[in-house]
Write a structure and sequence with these properties.
Layout (H helix, E strand, L loop, with lengths): L1 E4 L10 E4 L3 H12 L4 E5 L12 E3 L2 H4 L9 E11 L6 E11 L1 H14 L3 E4 L12 E9 L8 E6 L8 E8 L2 E8 L4 H10 L2 H4 L3 E10 L9 E2 L2 E3 L15 H21 L4 H29 L4 H10 L2 H8 L5 H4 L6 H12 L2
Parallel strand pairs: 2-3, 3-7, 5-9
Antiparallel strand pairs: 1-2, 1-14, 4-6, 5-6, 8-11, 8-12, 9-10, 10-11, 13-14
Helix pairs in contact: 1-3, 1-6, 6-7
The chain binds flavin-adenine dinucleotide.
The site of flavin-adenine dinucleotide has 38 residues, from helix 1, strand 3, strand 4, strand 8 and strand 12.
């Protein structure tokens, strides 16, 4: 999403133009309009939200988006995840509450809120926007007829053979429906995902792929700078994704909210300079900067472990350790669990604690 502030405001134009009605865009348009700025939300799709996504969020994302959970846009409620070792002999039970969204309905609910606050929605309009390099290719299938062990649990499968530098995910939507996908750095996503499905007949022997889409997600960390005079970048455009998980909905919602507030204040002051707009960047970085850079470090570390080492580590880590490591928080906690494998412990310590 690009929030472009128009310095000159002739009649019939806008103070704030938000490009892209993804999670960050709908939040930015809402907050800017709420602050009284004349705001337009421009989106190339007529019905946004169909861009491929596994649609999983942690429960905390909704309060951050200032919206209560509702069956209008929640497909399923999640109570944790099973993370499988590469050989699938070990399964870590990761606790945590979350939701699988119906993302088009979620974005529609948020864009209607922006509209009620005064933003004009212009859907079906394409702007020449700024992009950035992406590194992880995600391929997602919408499937029906899946037979999952527990429809309240996400399933995550790691291992270089299955998903080089990435993972396979199964995010249940209920009633046998699931978002099933793979994120990898190299080629062959479809071949690897089809192989995974074929080699798990217990879950997929009666399943059908209803829809298949691929999209890139930036997992290289935040851009150093994502504001300039008259402009702020948010969400994927700014690299605001948690690198190890590829999750960007929550961070994008928060970034858009802050950017919209800063845009609204800038309009009131008539100051659209990068130094004024940098308040958005400072606020976002203070919330998520360390988190994203630690997660990037964890991702780079995990890439250096072999499948055999990951099998051992999965046996010694607990769910919360994995969550902490995935989010880049306190990786030191994991080290104590590795006492039975000192050589591996040293490698983990070296990888996770290096600056
Ligand atoms: C397969 C896959 C699975 C994922 N699963 C998850 C998950 O489970 N949980 C999670 O948290 N994150 C997930 N992500 C990441 C998440 O989807 C993104 O990080 C998040 O949606 C980024 O939000 P955003 O605000 O940057 O906008 P985006 O979602 O990137 O939306 C941008 C919008 O801008 C519009 N647009 C783009 N260019 C133009 C233009 N030139 N003119 C007008 N409009 C334009 C697009 O049509 C789109 O609607 C996944 C990503 C992929 C690819």
């Amino acid at each position: 999403m690009v929030a472009a502030l128009l310095q000159q405001t002739p009649p019939d134009t806008f103070d704030v133009a938000v490009i892209g009605a993804g999670p960050s865009g709908v939040m930015a348009a809402w907050k800017a309009a709420e602050k009284g700025a004349k705001t337009i939300l421009i989106e190339r799709e007529v019905n946004p939200g169909r861009k491929v996504c596994a649609e999983g969020i942690l429960a905390e994302a909704l309060p951050d988006a200032e919206i209560a959970p509702s069956s209008d846009f929640i497909a399923n409620t999640i109570s944790g995840a099973f993370l499988y070792s590469p050989d699938e002999t070990k399964k870590v039970n990761v606790k945590g509450n979350g939701y699988i969204l119906d993302k088009p309905s979620f974005l529609q609910t948020l864009s209607k809120r922006a509209e009620r606050s005064g933003a004009i929605l212009s859907y079906g309009t394409t702007i020449n926007a700024i992009g950035r390099d992406n590194r992880l290719v995600l391929l997602g299938y919408s499937m029906t007829g899946c037979e999952l062990e527990d429809e309240r649990k996400l399933e995550i499968y790691v291992g270089h053979e299955k998903a080089p530098s990435g993972y396979v995910w199964i995010f249940p939507k209920g009633n046998g429906e699931a978002n099933v996908g793979i994120g990898i750095k190299g080629p062959n996503a479809r071949r690897l995902l089809d192989h995974f499905i074929a080699s798990h007949p217990r879950m997929f022997s009666h399943a059908k792929v209803e829809r298949s889409l691929a999209a890139p997600v930036p997992i290289g960390g935040e851009l150093d700078e994502y504001v300039a005079d008259n402009m702020m970048l948010c969400g994927d455009a700014a690299g605001q994704v948690i690198p190890l998980t590829g999750a960007g909905i929550h961070t994008s919602l928060v970034a858009g909210k802050i950017a919209g507030e800063v845009a609204g204040e800038a309009v009131k002051l008539g100051d659209y300079s990068s130094s004024r707009l940098r308040k958005y960047q400072q606020r976002f970085k203070s919330l998520y900067g360390e988190h994203i850079s630690n997660s990037l470090k964890s991702l780079e570390s995990f890439e250096r472990f072999s499948d055999e080492e990951l099998n051992i580590m999965t046996g010694y880590l607990e769910g919360q350790d994995l969550v902490d490591m995935a989010h880049g928080l306190s990786p030191r906690k994991a080290i104590g669990l590795m006492i039975h494998h000192p050589a591996l412990a040293i490698k983990v310590a070296y990888q996770l604690l290096r600056d």
